[in-house]
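During the second half of the funding period, the structural biology subgroup turned its attention to how the target accommodates small molecules. The most pressing case was flavin-adenine dinucleotide, which had performed well in the primary screen but for which no bound structure existed. We therefore specified the complex as follows and requested a full 3D prediction, including the ligand pose.
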Amino acid sequence: MAEQFGFAGAVDGSSVHDLVIVGAGPAGLAAAVYAASEGLDVLVLETNAPGGQAGTSSRIENYLGFSAGISGKLLAARAFTQANKFGAKFAVAPSGVRYRRSDIPGVERFQGTSVSHAATYLEAQLCGGEEVAVVGGANSAGQAVVFLARTVRHVHMLVRGASLAESMSRYLIRCIEELPNVTVRTRTRIVALEGTGPGRGALAPFAVTLRPRPHRGTGVR
Ligand SMILES: Cc1cc2nc3c(=O)[nH]c(=O)nc-3n(C[C@H](O)[C@H](O)[C@H](O)COP(=O)(O)OP(=O)(O)OC[C@H]3O[C@@H](n4cnc5c(N)ncnc54)[C@H](O)[C@@H]3O)c2cc1C
């Protein structure tokens, strides 16, 4: 099994485990905690880092027991420690992460300088005081907007759908509605990126060309 999942070198093939869990996202970590706490010999295989998708979240507000919210990184670290405490073993064979790339024409010119696929503390610092656009209308984009709005001048949220309610949790929509420096633009997509291209280490200034999506509604907000 380890061989099939690419862990041949990282796993001692002679050991026998009661349970092998593939993936150390929230589901895998929870399974490891409960199984190991019941005395099972647990091995968790992970190709990236414990935490999975949740590990990249700036603030998770709807996880049981964390009424004030918790960052995905901290949640993952705590669950990892908890699973370890009960004796679960981990084998991590990093294979890197491949994000789905945007198909906006010309986006590759700005990749890594002005266009990012994450909203971490680094992006928040780099965009401090600037105007930024966040593309997407689901929870990940919503969290990025709330997070960036603390440090940037203005956030434009570009959503292809008719409203945030189609794809975002209600609590997050409420947070966004209360932010004075956020504009939500529904039925909108980026059709072009224009600019001078990456500068020497600095962010390249560029303009985003927006176009309303064809629809039978009331118009673009
Ligand atoms: C930015 C962001 C913010 C989010 N915020 C929230 C939120 O606030 N509230 C909420 O409820 N949900 C949120 N989500 C969604 C939530 O993170 C996911 O629903 C949750 O992580 C799913 O957990 P999982 O363990 O099933 O899968 P994943 O988190 O996808 O974990 C799967 C793990 O398996 C590993 N893996 C995959 N294939 C293999 C393999 N062959 N061998 C070994 N390992 C493998 C992956 O590397 C990964 O670590 C957010 C997601 C993102 C991206």
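Two results from this model are relevant to the next phase. Confidence is low (pLDDT under 50) at residues 199-204, 214-221. Helices lie at 26-37, 72-85, 121-126, 139-148, 170-177.
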